[in-house]
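sorry for the late reply, my laptop died twice this morning and i had to redo everyting from scratch. anyway the thing you sent over, i finally got around to it. pasting the sequence first so we're on the same page, its 290 residues, then the predicted structure underneath. double check i copied it right bc i was rushing
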Amino acid sequence: MKYEGMIIRPPSEADSLLLQVTVGCSHNKCTFCGAYKEKKFRIKSDAEILVDINEASHYRRIEKVFLCDGDALIIPQERLKGILVKIKDNIKGMQRIGVYANAKSILRKSVSDLIELRETGLGIIYLGIESGNDEILKNIQKGSDRAKILEAGRRVKESGICLSATVLLGIAGIEKSREHALDTAKLLTEIDPDFVGALTVMIIPGTPLYEEQKSGKFKLPDKFGLIAELGMMIANSDFTRCFFTSNHASNYLPVRARLPEEKEQVLSLIENVIRIGDPGILKPEFLRAL
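ok and here's the structure:
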């Protein structure tokens, strides 16, 4: 495999073949993200991609493939379909292909387009929602508002592709923590994703958010404030059938819950952790990472 720069994938794609079909992120303006700042966005050529697919065809059994980098769904429909076909034809035993996406790239596809991609092997889309609050989305330069994110999420759901939504604890700072939690819970309820992954924002040197923190404009909630935000999101979300996790390396309190079945159980856990107030039961800083 030939990779350019740092490669990032969702925790659930740990056992997947990572196939880089784009370099960087087509948006690359979010104030909290430093993942792709050193890369100029481009779609790799079909020849480059085919070399890696041919190499992977000689590997032992591969069940899952994840298309890197930050926004592979931005690839024009016919080219993306062609890539998926080549993967299916050359990697035997492959059961699912996954991609990162944002609202912009999803909304460039019709529901029919997404159904075509599902029928060609695309099984899961990871959508970075971050927040359900328009003011916060504007502040972090997400590039989409609540209405567009809602439409994008519903479009994926209608297509039958599995939807995994990502939200960011702490991204609103202390002052807007409650609004962020409640508005994000409402948006998640309206989208009703199959999976939700809650990550905790980590302040990365060199990003605009880092400069905001240095100047005092942005203040991150403390550990228990972040956990309270998580509890508020879960308490105010209603799902048909969702697997909700906060087991990413960035989080202080790992949570894995099937909702709505385990809602009261996980809320009781969060309540007890906050009540006890012992930092020793939380993940130590040296174990936290992006």
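The chain has one domain: 11-287.
thats about all i looked at so far, will dig more tmrw
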